[in-house]
Amino acid sequence: xxxxxxxxxxxxxxxxxxxxxxxxxxxxxxxxxxxxxxxxxxxxxxxxxxxxxxxxxxxxxxxxxxxxxxxxxxxxxxxxxxxxxxxxxxxxxxxxxxxxxxxxxxxxxxxxxxxxxxxxxxxxxxxxxxxxxxxxxxxxxxxxxxxxxxxxxxxxxxxxxxxxxxxxxxxxxxxxxxxxxxxxxxxxxxxxxxxxxxxxxxxxxxxxxxxxxxxxxxxxxxxxxxxxxxxxxxxxxxxxxxxxxxxxxxxxxxxxxxxxxxxxxxxxxxxxxxxxxxxxxxxxxxxxxxxxxxxxxxxxxxxxxxxxxxxxxxxxxxxxxxxxxxxxxxxxxxxx
Length: 336
Fold this sequence. Notes:
Largest sheet: 12 strands, mixed
CATH topology of the largest domain: Isopropylmalate Dehydrogenase
CATH class of the largest domain: Alpha Beta
Helix content: 25-40%
CATH architecture of the largest domain: 3-Layer(aba) Sandwich
Structural class: alpha/beta
CATH superfamily of the largest domain: Isopropylmalate Dehydrogenase
Distance between the termini: 24 Å
Radius of gyration: 20 Å
Strand order of the largest sheet: 3-4-2-1-5-12-11-6-7-10-8-9
Strand content: 15-25%
């Protein structure tokens, strides 16, 4: 039997606990693979009571116990909080435990005690006081795994997108955009599509930055100076790649039949079409790591935390995607 998935608590004052409880409730109907959550069992019991979620919680001392427990109770690997959280109000005192839960999940998957890492959403502002110095999960996981350039993919049932620049202002993203960055994202994406998604010959599309792909330079030279050279380098490495294509014609149904993933030049260029097509089932996947990591493609939703109305669909998609990716990797030869 393969190891269970390791799910982190995320921001304790957000919706992570609630969607975790709901994901366990739907484990049979949605074919959710066995997982355990690194969390404070007492806070999950209290949350279940206040939200009307009748979920039995079973504290475990070892991830190996999760598979045995999972069918009758939510396995919780003991990870106590300093203070009982108040929904919608992040407490900096709990920030070290949130960060430590991520580190612990990575350690467990690297030791083989977990098959993948799935992360609940974090509230980054609440973590900065505890010394968290990263724009998001992606960069932090890259540091933990000693990977210089982890790549973020957002995947839904109908579309996969990869932003070349991620957690930057639009002005900063334009300054950071470079041919090497596009090549790194393109190569990492193509390799992941083969390894983790079983696509033997991945097809990449590359979005233009400017309207009408720059209109021959009349609306900007980035396509000619930065994007096209990167596409040529990817093609020279044997990758099936097209572009730069105007972003306004790249995401309709007929266009999506022609590629397996799109490289986008900045954050919103990637996330707007993905979330418009299927807001509830988007999954954040970190590519280029020596282990599988997924996450719901939404935030902590402080405005609805503790009200019992959070939708667990994206977390369930993250769990099932992680399970499928981990199972596919398990059938492949170990990398050097």
